[in-house]
Specification:
RNA_helicase_DEAD_Q_motif, alpha/beta, Rossmann fold, hydrolase activity, ATP-binding, DEAD_box_RNA_helicase, nucleotide-binding, 556 residues, 17% strand
Length: 556
C-alpha cells in the first residue's frame, strides 16, 4: 500500500515524499488505521521496520501546536531518543509542531526552557523522572503515551521508572507499546496500564533468502587475526561487529584503528558527545566499521549494513536474531558471520537448535599474524588515565609532582638518595622544575614497595618532609627522621615535617631553611599548630609558635 492511499494530511504526505518513502512497511500498514481509531496497540516488530512512522504520523495528525505537551514517548537510550525525535521532526517540518528531546548526560537547564513550549516530548526514563521531581515538565495534557523498545527498557532496569511515569500520565490517554519480545515485565505493564490492546505482530524485516549465515571455529589466539582477514576481504559497505561488553568493544575498536581500519566503538560507557560523534561519523560515511554492544545498538536504525560479525556469541537465539536483523534489508544481500571459540560452544548450541535459522559451518579462513592488544598506555585515546600533571619520574620510583601547583609558594624541594637526606633548594613559588641536586643513599626507611633501589635519586619537599618514600600513614623524612607513630590526634599541616599520618598527627625530619613558624603537625591530640617535633632551634615539641629556620637532625 502507498502513502497516498491512506489519506494523510497534505503537509505530512509532502514530508514523507521528500524523505523518499513511497510504500508502507507491514507494521505501518497494520498499525496506522488502529492508532487513528484511538485503540491501544501492542506492536511486535524488529528495529528498522518503520515503527516510528507507524505511531508518529497518526499522533502528529492529532497534535494542536502550542497547547502544551500532548504526547510523551519513552525510549531506552539517548541515541534512540535522538533518532525518534529527528524522525518526528522530519515528518512535521511543514507544521509548527515542536518536538523536544530529553535525555541524560547533558545539562538539564536548556531542556527546562524547551519543555515550556513543547508539543511532543521524546525522552529517556531517568531524565523524565528528573524533570518530574523538579516540576519542570507538565504531563496533565498528555493524550498519547508511547513506550518504544519496551523490552530493552525493562532489561536495562527501567521497569520501576516506567511505572512511575505511567502513573503520572492522565488515565484518559491512548497507550502504544512497541517491543521486539513480550517478556514477563512487558506483559505486566500491558496488563496494568493498557486498555483492551490490539496486538500487531510482523515477521522479521530481514529477507532470509538474501541473508547468508556462517560460523567459523577459531582458537582464542587466532580470533582477532581471522576477524582482520575477513574485514579486509569484505571491505565493501558497512560492517557491524557485536561485542558482549563495553571493554571488549573498546579493545576491538582500538586494535582495528591501530591497523589503519576506520573503526569506532559505541556503548553506554561513552560520553554522550562521543556516542553522537560515532553515529554522526557513521551517517557521513567517515567510518565503515562500527563496534557495538547489544544495548547500544538496540533501537538504532542503522541502514546499509553488509556484514554483521559476532565477535562475542549472543546468549540467546532471540539476541542472535536481533543482531543479524541489521543486514539483508530492502532487497540487499547481507552476511552474518560468527567467530566461535571453544568457550562459546555452549551458548551457540542454543542458537543452532533454532530450526528457522540456516547457519552453516565453513572452513576457517587464514588468520592474519596479529596479536590483539588488551592494555593501552595513559595516552590511549579513550583512557581516563590520571591527572596530566602527575607523571612518572625520569629517575627513581613512583610519581612526582610536575608543573605549578597553586597554594604552595615558597616551598623548595630536596633530593637525596632514595631514602637519604639531601640539600633543599628554595624557589620563589610553585613547583617548577628543580635545579640539579645531589645526594647520597642512606639506610632505607619507609615502605620499600614504593622504592626498592636505594641508590636511585628521590624527590622530597622542603618544609614538607625530606626525600624518601611513603611509609604507612604518610611520608618519611630522610634518614631516621620523618615517620611518627600512628595514633589518633590533631591534624596539622607539617612545616618542617613529613606528610600527615592517616590517623592523626604528623612527624618528619627538617630540611634546611624550613618555613619560619610553619604549621607543624603535633603528636598530641589537642595541639595542631607550631613547630614540629624534633631538634629545631625555636621549635616546640608540643605546639606553640616555633620560630627560626630548622636544621635536619632526625628524631630521637
Amino acid at each position: 500500500m502507498k502513502f497516498e492511499e491512506i489519506g494523510l494530511r497534505e503537509e505530512f504526505l509532502r514530508a514523507v515524499k521528500e524523505l523518499g518513502f513511497e510504500e508502507l512497511t507491514p507494521i505501518q500498514e497494520k498499525c496506522l488505521p488502529l492508532i487513528r481509531e484511538g485503540k491501544d496497540v501492542i506492536g511486535q516488530s524488529a528495529t528498522g521496520s518503520g515503527k516510528t512512522a507507524a505511531f508518529g504520523l497518526p499522533i502528529l495528525e492529532k497534535i494542536s501546536p502550542g497547547s502544551g505537551i500532548q504526547a510523551l514517548i519513552l525510549t531506552p537510550t539517548r541515541e534512540l531518543c535522538v533518532q525518534v525525535a529527528d524522525s518526528l521532526a522530519d515528518f512535521s517540518k511543514h507544521t509548527k509542531t515542536k518536538i523536544t528531546r530529553v535525555y541524560g548526560g547533558v545539562s538539564i537547564n536548556p531542556q527546562r526552557d524547551e519543555l515550556r513550549s513543547a508539543d511532543i516530548v521524546v525522552g529517556t526514563p531517568g531524565r523524565i523522572l528528573d524533570h518530574m521531581r523538579s516540576r519542570t515538565i507538565k504531563l496533565d495534557r498528555v493524550k498519547f503515551f508511547v513506550l518504544d523498545e519496551t523490552d530493552r527498557m525493562c532489561d536495562m532496569g527501567f521497569y520501576d521508572d516506567v511505572e512511575s511515569i505511567t502513573r503520572a500520565v492522565p488515565k484518559e490517554r491512548q497507550t502504544l507499546l512497541f517491543s521486539a519480545t513480550i517478556t514477563r515485565d512487558v506483559d505486566r505493564l500491558v496488563g496494568r496500564y493498557l486498555n483492551s490492546p490490539l496486538t500487531i505482530k510482523t515477521e522479521s524485516y530481514v529477507d532470509a533468502s538474501l541473508l547468508e549465515q556462517v560460523y567459523y571455529d577459531v582458537s582464542v589466539t587466532e580470533k582477532f587475526g581471522v576477524l582482520v582477514h575477513l574485514l579486509k576481504e569484505n571491505s565493501t559497505g558497512l560492517s557491524l561487529i557485536f561485542c558482549g561488553t563495553r571493554r571488549e568493544a573498546d579493545v576491538v575498536a582500538k586494535n582495528l584503528r591501530k591497523l589503519g581500519l576506520d573503526a569506532m566503538a559505541i556503548h553506554g560507557g561513552l560520553t554522550q558527545s562521543r556516542r553522537m560523534h560515532a553515529l554522526d561519523s557513521l551517517k557521513k560515511e567517515h567510518i565503515d566499521i562500527l563496534v557495538a554492544t547489544d544495548v547500544a545498538a538496540r533501537g538504532l536504525d542503522i541502514t546499509g549494513v553488509n556484514f554483521v560479525y559476532n565477535w562475542d556469541v549472543p546468549k540467546t537465539p532471540e539476541e542472535y536474531i536481533h543482531r543479524i536483523g541489521r543486514t539483508a534489508r530492502a532487497g540487499k544481500e547481507g552476511k552474518a558471520i560468527t567467530l566461535l571459540s571453544p568457550r562459546d560452544h555452549l551458548n551457540f548450541r542454543e542458537v543452532l537448535r533454532n530450526s528457522s535459522l540456516n547457519i552453516r559451518n565453513e572452513q576457517t579462513p587464514p588468520a592474519e599474524q596479529i596479536a590483539i592488544q588488551r592494555h593501552f598506555g595513559r595516552d590511549s585515546e579513550h583512557s581516563r588515565g590520571g591527572r596530566p600533571d602527575f607523571q612518572r619520574r625520569d629517575h627513581g620510583k613512583g610519581y612526582g609532582q610536575r608543573g605549578h601547583r597553586p597554594g604552595f609558594g615558597n616551598y623548595g624541594r630536596s633530593e637525596g638518595g632514595s631514602h637519604g637526606r639531601g640539600t633543599a633548594h628554595a624557589r620563589p613559588s610553585g613547583y617548577g622544575e628543580p635545579p640539579a641536586r645531589t645526594g647520597s643513599a642512606h639506610e632505607p626507611s619507609g615502605n620499600d614497595n614504593f622504592s626498592r633501589d636505594i641508590s636511585a635519586p628521590s624527590r622530597g619537599f622542603r618544609g614538607r618532609g625530606f626525600g624518601g618514600s611513603q611509609g604507612r600513614g604518610g611520608y618519611r623524612g630522610g634518614g631516621r627522621g620523618g615517620f611518627g607513630p600512628r595514633r589518633p590526634g590533631g591534624f596539622g599541616r607539617p612545616g618542617g615535617a613529613g606528610r600527615p599520618s592517616r590517623d592523626g598527627g604528623s612527624h618528619g625530619g627538617y630540611s634546611r631553611g624550613g618555613r619560619e613558624g610553619g604549621h607543624g603537625g603535633s603528636d598530641r591530640a589537642d595541639k595542631g599548630r607550631g613547630g614540629s617535633r624534633g631538634r629545631k632551634p625555636g621549635g616546640s615539641r608540643f605546639g606553640g609558635k616555633g620560630r627560626g629556620p630548622g636544621r635536619f637532625e632526625g628524631e630521637e
